[in-house]
Amino acid sequence: MKILPFFVIISLGSAFLISLFGKKIKNFADIVANLGTLSLLILSLYSVRLVAVHRVLVYKVGSWMPPIGICMVLDGLTSFMLVTINLVSFLVTIYSISYMEKYTDKFRFYTLFMLLVAGMNGIIITGDLFNLFVFLEIASIASYALVAFGTEAEELEASFKYAVMGSVASSFILLGIALLYSYTATLNMADISLVLSSKGSVLFISFVAVLFLAGFGLKAALVPFHAWLPDAHPSAPAPISAMLSGVFIKVLGVYALARIFFNILGVSSKMLFILIILGVISMVVGAFLAIAQSDIKRMFAYSSISQIGYIIFALGIGTPLAIFGALFHLFNHAIFKSLLFLNSGAIEYSVHTRDLKKLGGLNSQLPVTGYTSLLGSMSIAGIPPLGGFFSKLIIIIAAVEARYFGFALVAILISILTLAYYLKFQSFAFFGKPNEGKLKIKEVPGLMQFSMLTLAIICVASGLLISPMVKPFLNSARDVLWLGKGYAETVFGAVK
C-alpha cells in the first residue's frame, strides 16, 4: 500500500526539480521527465499484480483512520487507469524529447506536463472527494497553460475559452461536493456511499447527480458540453493533444463520472438512460462534425467526442458486458488517439502544415508516420483484428443483449462513418501524388518514431486483452463498477 503516494510524489517531485534545474543543466528536463514517467509506468504495472493478490489496498495518509483521515485506494479500476495514463505519458515524454526542441523554454513544458500527470494520478488514487477536486484543479490548470504553450493568438484564444469552460465545470463539481458534505458530514467516498445508502433522499441524490453530470460531462467533452475541445486540442503542441485526447478527458471526465455515479451515488435506471442518450448524441454529432474537417487535428478532436460517446453509451447500458466494453474501448481509444495525434505532430514537424488539402503522397517520404497512422486509423474505425474492432463489437453485442436495437444500429453506422473520415485522412495525406512543394521532406527523428511504433504495436496487440491470460486486468476494473455501492464495504473491509 505504501507505493500509492509515490504516484503523486514522483510526478510532483519531477516537476519541482525540472523547474529548479531544467534551465541551468542541459538535457536535465528530458532525463528527469522520462525517468519520472518510466518509474510511474513500472509502479502502475506492479499495482496490477498487487490488485491480483490483495484485491483492494488502502493507504492511510498520516496513519489517520478513514473516514476521519484522508485515504488512497488501490482497486482494479485504479490499477487499470494508472496503467493507461502512465503508459501514454511515458511514450509522450519520449516523443517530446525531439518534438519540443522547436519550442523555447522546454523545461517549462516538462514542468507543466509532470503537474498534469500528478493531477491525473491523484484523481485516480484518492479515496477522498475533496482531494479529487484538488487534483482535478492541478491537472486542469496545467492543461490550460499547456494549450497556450505556443503563445500564438489562436492558442491563447483557445486556452482562454478552455479555461472559462473548465472553470464553469469546476464550479458545478465543487457545488456538488459541498452539497454532499453538508448532507453526509464526510468527504470520504466510501463513507458518503454508506451514509447515502442509509438515509439518502432520491431527490437530493438526483440533484447532485445532475451537477456532477454537467461538471464531469464538460470535462469529458460530451455533447452538449463539448464546445471547448475542438479549439483546445488543435491549438496545443502535439504531445499535449495526445495527452488531452488520449487520457485527460477520460480521467477528469469518464473515470470521475463513473466512480461517483456507480460507487458513491448509486445508479438508477433513469440515470443510466440519460448516459445512453448523451453517449449516442455525442457519438453522432462528433462523427458528422469530424467528416467535414480539413485540419487534421480538428478532425481528430471531433473524433474524440464521438468515441467518448461510445464509452458513455456502454456505461449507460450498465450490464457487466457493457461495462467491460466501455473500459476496453477507453483503453483502446487512449492508445490509438494518442498515436494519431502524435502522427499529426510528425506530419506538422516534417511538412509544416496540418491542412489535408495541402498534403498528399507522404507515405513515400514518411513511411513510419504513414503506416503507424494507418494502423491507428483502422483501429479507431473498428477494422478486425485490431483492438478497436473487439471493443466496439463488445459494446454493440451488449446493446443488443440489453434490447437497445436502435442504438446498436446507430453505433454500427457511426463506426462506418468513422471509417469514411479516416479513409479521407489517409487518402489526402498519405496516398495520391506528392505535393510538388513537399518533395524533399524527411522522416521524423528516431525517438518520435519509437513512440509511434510502440503505440501502433499496442493497437495490434490490444485485442489480446480479451484472452484468458490478460482478461483479468479488465475484469477487475469492471467488477469495481459492477459492485456499485458495495465499494464502501470493500474499502472499509480493507482498512480493518
Could you characterize what this model shows?
With 496 residues, the protein is mostly helical. It has one domain. The chain contains 19 helices and 2 strands. It has helices at residues 6-21, 28-54, 76-99, 106-125, 129-147, 153-184, 189-199, 202-219, 229-235, 238-265, 269-290, 296-317, 320-351, 367-381, 387-401, 405-430, 446-461, 471-483, 487-495, and strands at residues 57-60, 71-74.
Descriptors:
19 helices, 496 residues, single chain, 2% strand, two-stranded antiparallel sheet, globular, mainly alpha
Shape: globular
| Class from secondary-structure proportions | mainly alpha
Please tell me the overall pLDDT: 88
Instruction: Bin the strand percentage.
Output: under 5%
Number of domains: 1
Overall strand count: 2
Low-confidence stretches: none
Q: How do the strands of the widest beta sheet line up side by side? A: 1-2
Give the arrangement of secondary structure elements.
Layout: H1 6-21, H2 28-54, E1 57-60, E2 71-74, H3 76-99, H4 106-125, H5 129-147, H6 153-184, H7 189-199, H8 202-219, H9 229-235, H10 238-265, H11 269-290, H12 296-317, H13 320-351, H14 367-381, H15 387-401, H16 405-430, H17 446-461, H18 471-483, H19 487-495
Antiparallel strand pairs: 1-2
Helix pairs in contact: 1-2, 1-4, 2-3, 2-4, 3-4, 3-10, 3-13, 3-17, 3-18, 4-5, 4-10, 5-6, 5-10, 6-8, 6-9, 7-10, 7-19, 8-10, 9-10, 9-12, 10-12, 10-13, 10-18, 11-12, 11-16, 12-13, 12-15, 12-16, 13-14, 13-15, 13-17, 13-18, 14-16, 14-17, 15-16
